[in-house]
Amino acid sequence: MMRVLVMAANDAYFAVHMERVHQVLRHPLVTRIPLSPVGLIGVVNVRGEIVPLLDTAVLTGTGRLDEPAFAVLVSSGDDMVALAAQELPVAADFEAPVGAGAQPGEVGVYSNGGRLVVLIDVEELVKNRLDLKRAS
């Protein structure tokens, strides 16, 4: 059994491993960054640390979330990122997947409460779906 946090992005549901989750922020105060890539909503200040707020819908190919109600702080490699969510994320226990992920960064598909939830690997999604090249 695997403990995860399930979050909504548009009409789809995604989950991340609970051991990567640090905190859920309600109504995050977002600082927009001019000319930022699609998928980077902005940054949030978390106890003095500047954390990028990523658009979960863009990362997963389900559209866009411009004004997220929640931000889920997760570990991504050595860094911390925030993932945008429309609804209050909820904890769940997953057992066996009902299918494989269709895209890079999708670990598997699970059934939870009558809906399908895609378990995601944040590092892979960022690497494959978001162009965060540093300015030179």
Describe this structure as you would to a colleague.
Helices cover 10% and strands 49% of the residues. The chain is mainly beta and 136 residues long. The chain has a six-stranded mixed β-sheet. A hairpin with a 2-residue loop joins strand 4 and strand 5 (49-54). The mean pLDDT is 90.
Termini, distance in Å? 45 Å
- Rg is 14 Å
How many DSSP E strands? 11
Q: Residue-averaged pLDDT, rounded?
A: 90
Give me the number of helical elements: 2
Structural class: mainly beta
Helix and strand pattern: EEEEEHEEEEEEH
Give the low-pLDDT segments.
none
Largest sheet, described in full? 6 strands, mixed
Largest sheet, order of strands side by side? Answer: 8-1-2-11-10-9
Backbone shape: globular
Strand content: over 45%
Helical fraction: under 10%
Please tag this protein with its features.
five-stranded mixed β-sheet; 136 residues; six-stranded mixed β-sheet; mainly beta; 11 strands; single chain
Can you summarize this structure?
It is built from two helices and eleven strands. With 136 residues, it is mainly beta.
List the helices and strands and how they pair.
Blueprint: E1 2-9, E2 12-17, E3 21-26, E4 40-46, E5 49-54, H1 56-60, E6 70-76, E7 79-85, E8 90-94, E9 99-100, E10 106-112, E11 115-120, H2 122-129
Parallel strand pairs: 2-11, 5-7
Antiparallel strand pairs: 1-2, 1-8, 3-6, 4-5, 6-7, 9-10, 10-11
